[in-house]
Amino acid sequence: MGSAPSTPRRGEAFSPETAEYLIGTFIGDKSFPLSSEFWQKLLELPIHVQWPSDRVQEACELLAKNNGQTRHLAKILFHMACCLQESMSISGVPPFVYEKAVNAAYISSVFLKHLIESFRGEYVELHLSLDDNETIPMDVLGDQTIENFVMRNVLNFIASVDVSANTYVLHLELLNFMIIAMSTQLLCGPSPGPHDVNPFLDAAMAQDSSLVCSVVRRLLLNFITRSGAPFNRASYSVFYEGSQSSVLQRVGSAAANIVLLPFSYLVSSRGDGSRNPLADSSLHVLLVLIHHHKCVVSEDYSATENNKENQYFSDNPYCKALEHAVDCELDRVDVEGNAHSGQLVKLPFASLFDTLGICLADEAAVLLLYSLLQGNSAFLEYVLVRTDMDTLLMPILEALYNAPRRTANQIYMLLIILLILSQDSSFNASIHKLILTGVPWYKERLLHQTSLGSLLVIILIRTVQYNLSKLRDVYLHTTCLATLANMAPHVHRLSAYASQRLVSLFDMLSRKYNKLADRRDNKLHNEKGNLIEGNSLIEDMSTELHIYTDFLRLVLEIINAILTYALPRNPEVVYAIMHRQEVFQPFKNHPRFSELLENIYTSANSVVSSVRFVKYCLCDASSHESLVLDFFNSRMDAQRVSGDWSVKEVLQVIIVNCRSWRGDGMKMFTQLRFTYEQESHPEEFFIPYVWQLVLSRWGLTFNPAAINLFPIDLPTDCVENGVVGSTLRNGDFDKPEYQLDP
């Protein structure tokens, strides 16, 4: 079966010659059968034996050259699965069984990753099948493919074996292996197609529902419990003996570009309390699994036809398992009368809620929260009944406050989360009852004893302002304003600062509107001679002007909803409107705004005609402006005294008279209610987004030249040993110095 130096007994040292021979044999052109003793010798090879990076690169290239003939990658994967089976089939597993499985997973990951990212051609060919004449142990493989056999055992181990001091590193390496095995998705185009080749992902999707549910539960429990790395040298001598890097450890700077290896994981996590390798890797694996969509061609058509009408996406069992997860605490109470049909993922929602609140600075945790709120109605209901909503909202609002340091996708996810929550009226009411003693990260102004609802209004308006000056994204504007519109009828005692910002929002958008209108009118005047180019530019400007007309109307509807449904509870809003009524004046006769402005002027103008502010000169009310302002104006006239009115005196009159406001004569408009719905093909956004997160947050580097899933800039100054290495970042904004108007 091929000669090899005898394997030292456990505890004895491996010679460099033995290690050199075993790795050299694995990558060589001679095929060793599954039953050869060579495989056991290879898997007992200590990882701490050193190989230089150029040799690792050479080893990867040699395996890529010979693997089609030897099928050694498939064989080591087979033995990895067998090691996992052995570790799950007996009680009191000796440590060396886990160590063999770690070695198999580790070596497989190094060479598998090189094969994937070095792929050139139309199809990924990993040569995962065994030769027909290969003798396979009876009843081990059956009719399964290698990839299915491997994924079934990897997932089984992750789901069924608890994380402990003895199994921690193996759990970590298996999660690393899964990310690498599923990275074939990076070679596919941004829109899933029927010709995409993802053997390990497809194998994961083919597992039975009970295993799928167990895997989803375990990955989420890993994220929740955040088990620390063990530092028991006696238990992990294989990872700590000697001061040199391991045989394949330096591959991080060369061929395989693996940087999160067992040793480096244990060492780096010691100095970084915020990082939890097992929790992070579990979350990344879960996100890849739940957002995968396999494109299938209808049986009535051939795969060569490119008509998308003949294609559909198969169900994702991991996504369904997450969507139907239930609270294990409530489920116990529900057992007697309302037993659930089928297998369900049972999770401690309280712990999941608290962990998400702690981890929302991580973009991957934000995506998990979005996935839960959007897909799992039980978790959404749980979140909405929590009385400590600040646990989730404060990190979300802080992230939006620091928008220049966030990616565009993260801002979108955060805003969509807020929009989903604002669809519930109880949420909109409860956030105004929760009073914050302070907001230390808000630097422009001291926010003392401010309600969570007021802070949410302030941050949403600030995000609109940032978008207007930096991103100029219509979808972001719409999402912010839709959330404010959902909140408006339920606003309660909005703070003075939030009320001022709301009126300033209209002023800010109106100035943008006026600039666009002036530019369009100037183009109309100047481009009369160039009809083709002029008409195209004018049409674009007219479209943008129409968009801002909609934005202005929406802000007016937000203000109108507060006055219509919540005026007695919001004297500061009335005061802010009176104080800045001049910003509304130019739009009184606009056909899209006139009806809404009638209600607003009704509430504010009467006071203005009677009261002179100390520092500001406000416009007089027109004769036809009546209701709300007329009401307060008459009250002010009744209490009028000689001399100027102070701000405090005006506000006190408004507060007193808010109690007697009935809204007679107010024109009622349909109450706005915005809901969030995913687009028809969300996979075109989420699959690339998930992998961008994995590559940037997980620390794994991947050859940029091999990536087709999303566009990236190929670096020209980061090439080592012929392999391009790059840690990808997810579209970070430029960060110029600028000031937001507080």
Automatic annotation (TrEMBL):
GO terms for biological process: Golgi organization. Signal peptide: none annotated. Keywords: Lipoprotein, Myristate. Pfam families: Dymeclin. One of its GO terms (cellular component) is Golgi apparatus. InterPro entries: Dymeclin. Belongs to the dymeclin family. This is Dymeclin. It comes from Arachis hypogaea (Peanut).
